[in-house]
């Protein structure tokens, strides 16, 4: 009997942590001239991470047996959850515990989808501001603040869903495991080496 792998493997967990740290680093160094190089580095790390995540979505089912959730899957979960909460006959039931829980699940999934869509826009505008037209700075900051709003939505719905479930729902993304396929662990190691090497040489430029 073959082993069933989770859709959340060690590479996805590490990518989640890198994206989280990359966003925090980029956001809080954005207005500091003396840390501009560090700000740009975090932006590129976000772009590398989102690119690896997209590649892994298509590659992992073929080489490691995992099936990561993609934009389509998460969008369907979000739409179905919100539809479920709005399908009740009377208006008052929309504010029931079950409806609020369904809306929270929908918004949680929607926040992930929108975060993944906004990351390339933020990084692209940051690059364009730096190398093409500085007047794009305001647009870059607008999408950076939108990114922050989506992160806050993501965290707040995670907390709300954890309250409903009576256990921390983010643990499955944060805990590390060695039960994944060897190719997955090797890919995670390669990612860490790539990010570390890029950061080291970029800061020395």
Topology summary:
Elements: H1 10-29, H2 36-63, H3 71-86, H4 97-131, H5 137-165, H6 171-174, H7 182-203
Structure write-up:
This protein is an all-alpha fold. The chain has seven helices and no strands. It is 75% helix and 0% strand. Helix 1 (10-29) runs parallel beside helix 7 and helix 2 (36-63) packs across helix 4. The radius of gyration is 19 Å and the shape is globular. The relative contact order is 0.16.
Short description:
The protein has 205 residues and is mainly α.
Mean model confidence by pLDDT: 87
**Number of beta-strand segments:** 0
The H-and-E topology, N to C, reads as: HHHHHHH
Strand fraction: under 5%
The biggest beta sheet, please? Answer: none
What share of the residues lie within helices?
over 70%
Structural class: mainly alpha
Radius of gyration (Å): 19 Å
Distance between the termini: 52 Å
